[in-house]
Amino acid sequence: xxxxxxxxxxxxxxxxxxxxxxxxxxxxxxxxxxxxxxxxxxxxxxxxxxxxxxxxxxxxxxxxxxxxxxxxxxxxxxxxxxxxxxxxxxxxxxxxxxxxxxxxxxxxxxxxxxxxxxxxxxxxxxxxxxxxxxxxxxxxxxxxxxxxxxxxxxxxxxxxxxxxxxxxxxxxxxx
Length: 175
Fold this sequence. Notes:
Radius of gyration: 21 Å
Number of helices: 5
Structural class: mainly alpha
CATH topology: Rhopdopsin 7-helix transmembrane proteins
Largest sheet: 3 strands, mixed
Order of helices and strands: EHHEHHHE
């Protein structure tokens, strides 16, 4: 067998979208505005649902849970990306990368499960309109939201356990 370099990669260099500094600053501003609009919309929706007792209905409870999951998805990736637009080194450690992956995967999976729950809610409303208030009680809705979050925080652990078994021993530059 031949001897090869088995040095493990502990950090990754993110090359970004462009090398031009003025374009990187333009991307920074664009993504910052998008992030702020997303967060204001999600936090506004969550606070509106929380403040108004008339909105404690299944559809709005699911929308509030979906808005929280969307806010978590946005904040799991965007801050590091914004820093990398302004930072010339643009380096992320393996631990940071794995942590960012976990939070992004769990919040994205939560969104998927909540969309499934919302589809079930609409199915019950259309197919059983007279039994809808009995079937989709607030208690069941909160349980479905909790189950969606619980499964979604456990699901990425499978991927992370498999990912951590890999060895990164080639180039650490990510394009």
